[in-house]
Structure formats: C-alpha cells, structure tokens
Design goal:
Beta-lactamase; 16 strands; Penicillin-binding protein 2a (Domain 2); 483 residues; alpha+beta; three-stranded antiparallel β-sheet; extended
Length: 483
C-alpha cells in the first residue's frame, strides 16, 4: 500500500455529477438533456390519481342559511339595544336619576273669585296632605308595616288595610313608584305636626302643605255652620275636588295624583286661568328620599283672579225672596235670574234647592254624597243653566228679525189680535183678554203680543209663517244653541 501514493488518481467526469450547476449548456432557451440517476425516479409520483386529505370538507350550500341566522340574531340584539336606549331611554334614565336627583313641583296659588264690587267669594286655606313615594319606602317589610301602622294610628280615620290596598296598585320598579301616592289630606293641625316630626325618619313618607278652597257664606245668621245649606253662590261657583284617573289622563303632566281640580261651575269652566302655572324644583335627595339641597328652581305663576258680573247683595236678596215664595206655596224647587237689560250681564242667578260646596272642597264622604243624590229635589242640579224650559217671550225678537229678513212681513205689516187663535180643539191665548187690536211689529214687541208672533212663526189661515226649519236656522244665527 505504500506505493499507492505515487499513483495518479483517476480524473472524475464533471458532467456525471448531478449536483454541479451546468453553464453554457442551453441553446435557444432550452436545457440540454442531462443524466438522471435512478433515485430521482423514485421520488416522482404521478398526479393523475385522486388526492386524499385529512379533515372535513365545507358544504358551501349551507352558507346562506348560516348567514341568515347570523344576521337574524344580530338584528334581535340591535333591536333590543335600540328599544332600551332610544324608546325606553328616558324611562330608565328617569328611574336612575330618581334615585339621587328629583324634580318636585311647586304648587301655585289658585286665583280668587270676586263679585262685581270686588268682594271675595272664596279663599285659599292651608291643606296638610300626606303622600308616599313608594320607591323610597323601606325594603324591609317589617319596618314598612311598622310605619304604616303608626300612620294609621295617628290619622285615626284610615286603616292599615286601606293604605296597603293603595300601595298594592303600584308596581315595584315602575316609574309610578317615584310619583306621589296620595294617602290623606285635610289633616288636623295637631296630627300634621306629629306626622311631620316623625316622618323625618321615615323613608318615602312626605307631609306637604298644599292649598284648599273655602267658599264664603254671606247673609246668614250662622255663617260658619257647615250644616247651613243656604249658600247663595254654590251653583255659580261650583267646587273643586280630588282629581281622578280619567282627568289625569286627559290633562297630562299639568297635574299630579295629589291635586285638586275644578269640578263644577266657575271653578270648572275657568280651571286653566284659576289654576296658574306650576314651578319646578330640582333637588338632591338622601338615602331616605328627603331633600338635601336645591340644584335649580323655576318659579311658579299664581292663577288669575276673576271678577264676576254678579252682585252679591242682589244674589242674596233674590234668594231670600225666592225661598219665601216657595215656603208660601209649599214648593221646594225654583230658579230665578236677574239680568241687566242694558248690557245683558247676569246680576243674580239662583237655583233652589242649593247645597254646601264646602263639603266637596274638603273631600266629601261616600255617605254625604249618597245623601245628596238621593234627595228627590236634586240639590246638585243647576236649574238655571241645565234645566230645559219654554223660551217664553224672549224668542219674540228673534222671530221678528227672521220674518223681516225673509220678507214675510214689513215694518208696516199689521196683524189683528182678538185675544188668541184657535187651531182645532186647541186655543192659544194672548195675555190680554180681548186682544190688542191691530198691531205692527214694533207694537207687537213693545206689548209682547202673542197673536202677532203666532202668525209670523207658524202661520195662520191664509197667512204663511216662517215654519220650524227657518225658526231653528235663525235661532242658531242668534247663538241660541251655544254657550
């Protein structure tokens, strides 16, 4: 082996080495054929056979169904979000803010009603009222029951069961739970002071000082007696009373469940002017729902005062005369109205029997109301404005104007009055026996001649009158079917 190092090694053929990069062997952008060793054939696998993969294939047909379900659930989520944020946003915001910041109403003073000589017919007096804010009441049932029992004990006229019935109508967590829930009003001064002192530690219990009406009595010996039913202005003034659910829905945010509202007469007709405009006070409350500090305030506007055309002296005198005549005739129902012929103003308006409107102002009991409506004389019925009566001679100027307008008569037309007219078996008399003779329209109005207006109203014999339709038409033109 020693001589082997002197032997010249065999020269390798570079072309036979497959790992050497060939240069200059391509012509016309084509590679010249090269030698491939056997192992290269082994790694080549034909692509003609079907490939196998590991896993599951996706069926694209199901893509629309999945997309629909995805969009459906996203739409539900967006709709619920919009409902909570947009539609019910104010509701839940009010509930959240109601736990800390609240807006309280400042009650305005109701306007005073005067007669034509500026004598007051009504006055405002203090009214202690008690109400709950249900959301602030103790969550502990035992503590809440103790408070309710104590309130019932102090008031003396309201049982625990009655208070619980009122509370049961309020749904927990609702917006109504943050609104005042009326419990009692017209509370005696001594009871009000006791409740005020104790309620400072009762969450959700509020004693407020409101305004109530007192209708003044004139012309009587016992002016301060509520048993006295001789109240000359009761049918004119009407009364205020506790607002009910229907009125709350009708008048909206202007009133609270603890408010009083005009129910009848002037109090009802001029409610908007008498009531005034409520103020607002934004306050921060503590854990008991009691006021801590005032954040902002809008001042209230008191109601307008009203001056009536009625003269109180004449009203009282007219009622005294009417009562005396009813007593002599052994009757109980009547109505009388006194007008100023120059202006048409009502100077006095009396409807008998009358009633005491102060029992409504302080809160009438069911027994008192039943006693009133069961009376056959119907004292609550205002016969002056609600009763239906024949028009009498007040219709004659309307008929005269209508007949002149339609050309049925002229100012010179005359009708013979002989004491009345006879139609069939019926006789319609004049007020003057024997009649007024031949009269024109001026004389007929001046002397109130019935026969003349029988002729021009319904016609008689060969004289054609207005007829029912034209009488009704001109009555409407004169406003007889309006207030």
């Amino acid at each position: 082996m020693a001589f082997s190092k002197y032997l010249k090694p065999k020269k390798k053929n570079k072309d036979s080495d497959p790992f050497i990069i060939k240069q200059g062997k391509s012509r016309n952008s084509r590679l010249a054929p090269v030698y491939r060793s056997g192992w290269s054939e082994d790694v080549y696998i034909s692509d003609n056979r079907e490939k196998e993969t590991v896993g599951k294939s996706f069926n694209i047909v199901k893509l629309p169904i999945i997309s629909f379900l995805l969009i459906f659930f996203i739409s539900i989520l967006l709709a619920k979000t919009a409902w909570l944020q947009i539609v019910k946003g104010d509701y839940y915001y009010s509930m959240a803010e109601g736990n800390r910041i609240r807006i309280e109403r400042i009650e305005p003073k109701r306007g005073i009603i005067y007669d034509r000589k500026l004598r007051p017919l009504v006055r405002n007096k203090a009214n202690f009222l008690l109400y709950f804010v249900p959301a602030d009441l103790p969550k502990d049932e035992e503590e809440k029951s103790r408070i309710i029992f104590r309130i019932s004990e102090v008031l003396g006229e309201l049982s625990v069961e009655e208070i619980n019935i009122k509370l049961a109508k309020i749904e927990k967590g609702s917006l109504e739970a943050y609104q005042p829930l009326f419990i009692a009003d017209n509370i005696d001064y001594e009871k009000a002071i006791l409740l005020y002192l104790e309620s400072s530690n009762w969450p959700g219990v509020v004693l407020a000082n409101g305004i109530n009406r007192e209708y003044l009595v004139y012309g009587m010996e016992e002016e301060n007696s509520e048993k006295n039913s001789f109240l000359p202005m009761s049918h004119i003034l009407g009364y205020t009373g506790k607002i009910n659910e229907q009125e709350l829905e009708q008048y909206g945010d202007e009133y609270l469940p603890i408010d009083y509202i005009g129910k009848m007469g002037i109090e009802y007709f001029w409610e908007n002017e008498l009531k005034g405009k409520s103020g607002k006070k934004q306050i921060e409350v503590d854990a008991l729902g009691k006021e801590k500090k005032i954040i902002g305030q809008i001042k209230e506007e008191d109601g307008h005062n009203l001056v009536l055309s009625v003269d109180l002296d004449q009203q009282v005198k007219l009622q005294e005369i009417l009562v005396r005549h009813l007593h002599d005739l052994k009757l109980s129902k009547a109505v009388a109205i006194l007008l100023d012929p120059g202006s048409g103003e009502v100077l006095a308006l009396v409807s008998l029997p009358t009633y005491n409107n102060n029992i409504f102002a302080r809160g009438i009991t069911s027994e008192e109301y039943s006693a009133l409506i069961s009376q056959p004389e119907e004292p609550l019925f205002n016969r002056a404005i609600s009763g239906e009566y024949p028009s009498g001679s007040t219709i004659k100027p309307v008929l005269a104007a209508a007949a002149l307008e339609e050309g049925i008569i002229s100012e010179n037309t005359k009708v013979l009055s002989v004491g009345g007219i006879k139609i069939g078996q019926w006789f319609f008399p004049d007020w003057l026996p024997g009649g007024h003779g031949r009269v024109s329209v001026r004389e007929a109005i001046a002397q109130s001649v019935n026969t003349f207006f029988y002729y021009i109203g319904g016609g008689y014999e060969d004289f054609s009158g207005l007829g029912v339709d034209k009488i009704a038409h001109y009555g409407e033109l004169f406003g007889l079917n309006t207030q």
